[in-house]
Amino acid sequence: MSLRSLVLVTPLVAGLALVQQGLVSAAQTADSQPVIQRADDSGLQWAPCPAVFPKGCEVTVLQGDPAAGRSDVFLRSPANYTFPPHKHTSPERIVLVSGEMEMTYAGKAPVVVSAGGYTFVPGSMPHAARCLAKGPCVMFIAFQSPIDAEAAELTGGSGQQ
User: In the chain, what are the domain boundaries?
Assistant: First the structure.
């Protein structure tokens, strides 16, 4: 096999391997369209956050269906906003797009995350967050299963409430 053939075939084989492993569905690879979105785009449709959070935060769905399965969202809050302790079945992958947040996970000491920072929250782990006074916070969050957020308590370790 020539080097040119290898360069052309390798991404296809890698993509098929991801489909076989269940990391990417066949529908996603065949039917999905690329999505390019900025958190400050005026065309985004923002809605209030779920009732588990106090008024003031907003969410917009970028891709997927938060009620049915995998989804990507932007979530934003004003400065000094607190996301009270909560949990959900789905793990979440968070990238802080703007602002600065203090994140607290059950049994752990709070940590401050700055814009560009990444955090992973395992499914069903109680956690809380607070957007600090440096300005509004925007998070990109990827969920891998339906979102079923509910109030929770942070207990144990130095993150005890």
Answer: 1-32, 35-151
Could you give the CA distance from residue 153 to residue 128 in angstroms, rounded to a whole number? 9
CB atoms within 10 A of CB 79: 14
Q: Report residue 139 CA to chain centroid gap.
A: 7
Task: Count Cα neighbours of 42 within 13 Å in the Cβ-side half-sphere.
Answer: 0
Q: Out of 3.40.50.300, 3.40.220.10, 2.60.120.10, 2.40.30.110, which CATH number does the structure's domain 35-151 have? A: 2.60.120.10
3-state secondary structure (DSSP) of residue 156: coil
What does the mean pLDDT of the chain come to?
82
Q: For the whole model, what pTM was predicted?
A: 0.76
pLDDT in tens, 56-81: 999 999 999 999 999 999 999 999 99
